[in-house]
Amino acid sequence: MEPRVRPLPPEQWDDFQRDNPQNVFTTLGRHPRLFRAWLGFGSVLLYGTLPARERELAILRTAHRHGSAYEWAHHTRIGREAGLTDREIDAVRRDDADWPPGDLLVLRAADELHAGGDLSDATWAALCERYDETERIELVMLIAHYGMLATVLATLRVPLEDA
């Protein structure tokens, strides 16, 4: 599919885009003010308080539920760096996979937020037992952010980079 908004050509990239020449950055960079604000917000979520492995489980499940090949491709690599195995990454796409309770809770939160934009009281109570208030807020914002980003990537038809 042709992009609806083409990535900036390399001669228009800023220093960040030269260091990170991904289409998500060079496409959203066409709106410089929004791009800079989004980068700051996204960085807080990507390098926040949640354990990296759990963060990546939430992102990958959200990418899967939204059908975001772009997010899936990038976060498969990041997930491996965060300690997820290839078997676990593949299992993120399966509803019948056997997960430890903590991982299952993260996946359930992503599923519920995707399906209804809210968490059940039971899921919230389980999150309260596992995470502090800051981490709970961050987890909900993380999942919502990657859902929003999946929508933006799909709507703008941001192409996945060549291998």
TrEMBL record:
Residue span, Carboxymuconolactone decarboxylase-like domain: 32-97
Superkingdom in the source lineage: Bacteria
Stored InterPro entries: AhpD-like (IPR029032), CMD-like (IPR003779)
Record GO terms (molecular function): peroxiredoxin activity
Signal peptide limits: none
Protein name (database record): Carboxymuconolactone decarboxylase family protein
